[in-house]
Amino acid sequence: MQFKFSLFLLLHFFANSINALSKCLCTVDSSSFPGSNTTPPASLVLSSDSEIVDNIDVGKLIAVGSIQVLKQIFQVQKHSNAELGNNCPSGYIPLTKDDITTIIGRSDVNSLVGPTYLNLDFTKNVYYTSTKVNATATNGGDNQSYEYFTFSLDKNNNFTIDRSNTFWESKVRSTICKRSFQSFTVSLNGYEGFDLEKGKSYQMQITNKNVQQYYIYDNSGNKFTSQTFTYTHNGDPLWGCATLNFKLQLFGGVIVGDCLAIWTQNQIAFNADSSSFNMNSIKTAVLQGVKANANTKFFFSPGSSPIAPIIGDSSSFYVYYSVQTSNQLMVQKVSSTGTPIGAAIDTQQVGQPFDIASTGFGFVVMAADSTQRAFIQAINKDGSQRWLRILINNGLKPNNPKDQIKFFTNEKCDLPFGMDCMYNPHNGRLNYARGKIQAIWAHYNHFGFKDDGSKDDHTADTMISLDADTGYNQTIFWSWGTSHSLHQNLHYDGQNLYVASLGDAYPMNINFQVCNIDTYQCKSNSAIVQGDIPGNGGGCASGRIGGFFSMIGNRNQKLFIYQRKASKGEHDGAVSTNTVNELAVLKFDSQLKYISTTTLLSGDVASRVNSIKSIPYGKNILLAYTVIPSPDVQNFNRQYSDNKVDEAYIALLSGVDGSFLVKPTQLSTFQINSNDDWRILENGSIAYTYIDNSNNLNIYYTPSLTIPSYPNPILPYDSTYGFGNFTNIQLKVPVNNYNNVCVKQGDSNWSIVDYSKTISSVAIVSSSNNPSNGNNPQNGNNPSNGNNPSNGNNPSNGNNPSNGNNPCVPGNNQTNDCITSFKNIINNLCIFLIMTTFLF
Question: Radius of gyration over alpha carbons of the chain, in Å?
Fold first, then answer.
């Protein structure tokens, strides 16, 4: 009996491992439902309401049997060579030749074209279909490319199908638009595309016009049959995703479907009251028995002991650190009171930690070692490795790539600008959202050689995305961004990822980007700071960056803390001068449009601010910063902390405008780290680390906050928690990463998952990657980089996993066969186990 039970558990494991992300798939269902009627009207019928598209009234619909056309007529473009250029509203397309054939065959065709319905005028207009006369003629130089079938009258005034050339046509080029049932999009009030908090209920209302019956169901089995319904978000426990399906019977007896994948927003007590914060309430604990490597540099430098709040656990977090004596990279689970929980996890890697992010299965880390090998590693909660991806492993100052993550921009297999031969990773940040890992890191790239024979090498940052489950489905946001990227900060607001990179050359400022993590498209603005932050192009900048804050009650506005001092910078002939000393708070909208600046400190004290930490604390912002002595002030202040002479301060800022709620107070002991971000836990407490002169890993934490009661349900337009309007427009992901074409089996340059420690990962290949780099600076100047991350403890890494024996290399022609073979093996094993179970 025990044997049967064990087999059942093993069988259950295999079944679940194959469908790890199946619950996140959103499949449109447009089948009939109880009470629905799919019989189209026999005669012409006009809809009761006008259709609204993008807040524009586009007129009423006419049901012509199963075809639904807009009463309003739309225009066609003259240069319609590849396809019929038209201005049909979103969700509508021109009629086809077959549609016109059906319409001409109706007995009521005269009524349809008459003044009551379409009111067509064949003497002044030509009514084009989307059907080309010569389907394969698409060359703009070919006259046949512009010919389309048209709805016309013959010489006897009988309806017929004719043809016309859009380029030469002298009449008004028009078309009749029909509803596209293949691209129907649901419109809602009470949801805006943001991730939702688990367990919270939201009132939603379908706002599409001319809907006759409603049928909505979620992944938990709840069903709704009214226009207004209350949805309770219960995302999948591992991935945090849920699905909401819509089946709507529209005017004319047509059923359409749409589906939303709704993800879970990590709870952070974001509206809790923290105004009574007292600096003396900060507690501390030391991780007993741990001696960790410390890093005191700000720029071009890794972290010391980054932390990640544990998803679904209100009061604990992971700490990622490097052991002082061995450089072994370890992860320790810690309670919100600084107490270790269980034994530390040995990642089986050595090096310097960059960052860590918590996931449903465990955590993901990014690090580098003394051989300039950088990697991203996923580890399960039990300490086993889930996957590992090499970012860079080309050795010291390489001339040719050996092993690095690759993207290909075209079928010629060209590599993106700045990713030809990467080396010397400096620093980086991770974010986890919607089942994906977003990673930004700064690195050098070898571009070739100058005329004098010297190496033409430069540094900037790259940002990519990986599937969190497998490490595959790699996509790219940009290949060569801020140059030189001294320090980065990431902020995910539940819909978009905000990125800040401090540059010393391109730009001499903070480069802000807002990115869609599903389409990998970004919008940048390096002019939000009102004036420059001078740099020298060699790793020095006269400014510092803190963190982002999403405003309570107005999620479309952001705050960001920064510092700059009066200085002069120059690089490659470009001179930058700043006369302002300030520690300030920027306010800008969700698309990076500047709103205002709130100055916190100015004058001498602002010029001496040398490190900033800022983090949401309930509805407000906790700010910490260091100040150097006046004699240490230079054109570019020193870029490291000195706990012997530097002073540390802490304050509380308003979450409305960033002004002081609690004035700065000096901390009794120096406890502000150089590069690791402070983090907020789900109970509202803030945790941070500091490695002291004795290499002790100290944990600091603030009191937890009382989470306010949420309305139930949360209504649209609630000033704090509610959501407005949303239309589920399916954004297209540009396909310009050709890994599936360019990568061959056995290519040693391809970085693959290390299956030697993987339990249940299956490679899924995607070609929808976007190395769109619209802001590549032509950086022809090699900075003098005296700021390469030298920690004094750089390990010699003998633990680089060998991946060369894996026969299933993602991107090669055999990948699908490999995946199929893997699934077949699993299926056969499952069948064997079932048979064995019954035999015994």
Answer: 30
Q: What is the 3-state secondary structure (H, E, C) of 766-815?
A: CCCCCCCCCCCCCCCCCCCCCCCCCCCCCCCCCCCCCCCCCCCCCCCCCH
* Average pLDDT score over the chain: 87
| Per-residue pLDDT at 734 | 67
Q: Peptide bond before 353: cis, by omega within 30 degrees of 0?
A: no
| Average pLDDT over every residue of 233-248 | 94
The Cα 840–Cα 826 span in angstroms is 21
> Is the predicted pLDDT of residue 508 greater than 90, yes or no?
yes
- 525 with 464, same domain: the answer is yes
The candidate with the shortest Cα–Cα distance to 185, out of 258, 247, 252, is: 258
Beta bridge partners of residue 689, listed in sequence order: 699
DSSP summary character for residue 226 = S
Q: Three-class SS of residue 736?
A: coil
Q: What is the pLDDT of residues 580-628, one digit of tens each?
A: 999 999 999 999 999 999 999 999 999 999 999 999 999 999 999 999 9
Q: CA 53 to CA 186: how far, in whole Å?
A: 11
The domain total for the chain is 3
**How long a stretch of residues is the chain?**
840
Query: Are 456 and 530 within one domain?
Result: yes
- Do residues 608 and 672 both lie within one domain? yes
- My answer on whether 303 and 161 are in the same domain is no
**CB 409 within 8 Å of CB 468:** no
Exposed / middle / buried, residue 68 (Cβ in 10 Å: 0-12, 13-18, 19+): buried
Cis, peptide link before residue 426, omega less than 30° from 0? no
Burial class from Cβ neighbours inside 10 Å (0-12, 13-18, 19+) for residue 23 reads middle
How far is 721 from 197, CA to CA, in rounded Å? 10
97, 7: one domain = no
d(CA 691, CA 699): 9
Coil, helix or strand for 629?
coil
pLDDT of residue 495 exceeding 80, the answer is yes
Residues 551 and 630 both lie in one domain: yes
pLDDT score of 787: 36
Can you name the residues that pair with 76 across neighbouring β-strands? Answer: 86
Question: Could you tell me where the DSSP H helices lie in 369-431?
Answer: none
pLDDT-based confidence at residue 63 (cuts at 50, 70, 90): very high
DSSP annotation of 756: G
Pair 3, 138 in one domain: no
Give the three-state DSSP class for 98. Answer: helix
User: Is residue 413 very low, low, confident or very high in pLDDT (cuts 50, 70, 90)?
Assistant: confident
Query: Does residue 740 surpass a pLDDT of 80?
Result: no
Residue 682 sits in which domain range?
279-708
Which one of 685, 708, 731 terminates a domain? 708
**Exposure on the CB side of residue 478, measured as CA atoms within 13 A:** 24
Residue 767 is assigned to a structural domain of this protein: no
How far apart, in whole angstroms, are the C-alpha atoms of residue 254 and residue 179? 11
Rounded-to-integer distance, Cα 347 and Cα 322, Å: 10
Whether pTM exceeds 0.90: no
List pLDDT tens digits, range 383-408.
999 999 999 999 999 999 999 998 88
CA separation for the pair 822, 758 (Å, rounded): 14
Q: What is the DSSP letter of 86?
A: B
Q: Which has more pLDDT, 78 or 762? A: 78
Considering 708, 739, 760, which residue would you say is the last residue of a domain? 708
**Confidence label for 776 from pLDDT (cuts 50, 70 and 90):** very low
CA distance 372 to 733: 33
Distance CA 327, CA 400 (A): 28
On whether residue 34 sits in a domain, the answer given is no
| Structure token pair of residue 2 | 């025990």
Give the span between the Cα atoms of 438 and 422, in whole angstroms. 19
Q: Do both 65 and 136 map to the same domain? A: yes
Query: Cα-flanking dihedrals φ and ψ of residue 112, to 5°?
Result: -60, -45
